[in-house]
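Session log. Operator J.P. requested a structure for one protein chain; no other inputs attached. Running the standard single-chain path with token output.
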Amino acid sequence: GWSQVVLQSIFLLLPSWFRFWQCVRRYRDTKQRFPHLVNAGKYASTLLVAVTNALRRTKNFDYHQHKLENPFLYLWILMSLFSSTYKMIWDLKMDWGFFDKNAGENRFIREQIIYPRKIYYYISIVLNVILRYVWIINVFIHFNSLFGEFSDIIGFSFALIEIFRRFIWNYFRLENEHLTNCGQFRAVRDISIRPTPKLIKNSRTTQQTEDDEQLTTNGIPLTVINDSQHLSRLTRRKTNAEEFIEEINPILTINKNENYSLDDQIDSMA
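Structure written below.
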């Protein structure tokens, strides 16, 4: 009845309603139209889908024998197509950072990636597009009364599909945030998020020289990672040892097996 439709519609509206006003608040605080107002538009499209769907369901009582004549059915389909396309583009471009014009050899992805195989990214793109439009199945079910008695099972299946899509989405969203927000100090690139098969345990040395003590944290010596991407950013050699260590700190790591003096580490970077 009406009460059930209204109650379900309210619960469907609330998450997008809160996120919409969060984006508006972010715009108010930062005065940045992009991305906050554009992101708010994404949630506004979701609200339109929920509203038109509620109107479609309530009008079905009047068009019970002729569902195809329900005008809100076509409005709901139109809003759903618009919203799904909006969200799909936002997923790929904004949340995942794909289709970067500077991607280079990582075509259709982005310049920097963490996971070892590019096929993972291409599969995720295809899956995200398909799962964003899986609701179209519901349109065909709407016209086939034979599936009416299975509506609860079908709705539950769609919910599981969305959970699976979100599961995939989280991995690449976290990766993009990790790689692109270092400049805003919202992520630290030195902490890897790439899955590792095992942890390498190193024993700690007990004897250290005075020079080593100056280069240690809690008595653990530091050694330089052989990382060409970071080395290319070092344009000149610092004369002051402390300033030099601070500059190359992102490419230093703790090594508990070897002891290097300050001169050895500087010479290895030269």
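Operator note: Confidence is low (pLDDT under 50) at residues 199-241, 253-263.
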